[in-house]
Amino acid sequence: MPKHDEGRRAFLVGAAVGAGAVASAGLLREAHGQRQEPQTAGAAPAATHAHSGAPGHGAFFNNEDGATIAAFTERLVPGAPGKPGARDAGVLNYIDLALSGAYADLQYFYRRGLASLDAYCRREHKEPFRQLPATQQDEVIAALEQGKAAGFTWPSAQAFFNTVRTHTMEGMFADPIYGGNKDFAGWRLVGFPGAQFAYTKEDMESKEAFTRLPIVGLQAQARG
């Protein structure tokens, strides 16, 4: 894995652990304050996207937007042998389900942000984000983070980046019952044990990451 990818992974995983993000689907919710921009009188409502039955999305995203989010989140948390990334953890599925449910108020936010991202990439690189090589995708993401990507009005480039990053962290580290953290990929990555029924004295006193199986999530508790 390139050093750039290793550094990004280490930063985001460290931020997730430091913020207690692994314990809840509600971490940091920067997006909570991002409400839909009021439309001017007479303005046409945003078009409803066609859904597909492809694995990992279809509740909200169409194929193109799903591919864009999958690529974007994978550059935020890139996978490597033995180290799961956003694709491995099903982050796309998490965001897709959230936008069709609890985060439905952010649907227009995502539609506008994705349209602005696509337009920016076509102007600068002649291709949409999902078709750019990883190095150019990283350049685009850096431009968003720094507020240097032109053409964004609402949401701003930084607001869009921050929201997708937050939702990526949620999809990596929230309980799998919400559609991400597939096979506890994120929890295994940081040594989080989930909602264990009991801990031994040795577990409680250990300073090492918890590795004993099974890792327990909310779905197992519900069955119990």
Account of the 3D structure:
The chain is mainly α and 224 residues long. It has one domain. Helices cover 48% and strands 0% of the residues. The longest helix has 19 residues. The chain is globular and about 60 Å long. It starts with a helix and ends with a helix.
Beta strand %: under 5%
Largest sheet geometry: none
The N- and C-terminal alpha carbons lie at a distance of 40 Å
Mean pLDDT: 80
Number of strands: 0
Order of helices and strands: HHHHHHHHHH
Q: How many distinct folded domains?
A: 1
Give the overall silhouette. globular
Going by helix content, strand content and strand pairing, the class is mainly alpha
Stretches where pLDDT falls below 50 for ≥5 residues? 18-35, 38-54
Question: Rounded to an integer, what's the Rg over CA atoms?
Answer: 18 Å
The amount of helix comes to 40-55%
Secondary structure tally, helices = 10
Which keywords apply here?
about 220 residues; globular; mainly alpha; single chain; 10 helices
List strands and helices in order, with pairings.
Elements: H1 3-18, H2 63-76, H3 86-89, H4 91-99, H5 107-125, H6 134-145, H7 157-173, H8 185-190, H9 201-205, H10 218-223
Helix pairs in contact: 4-7, 6-7
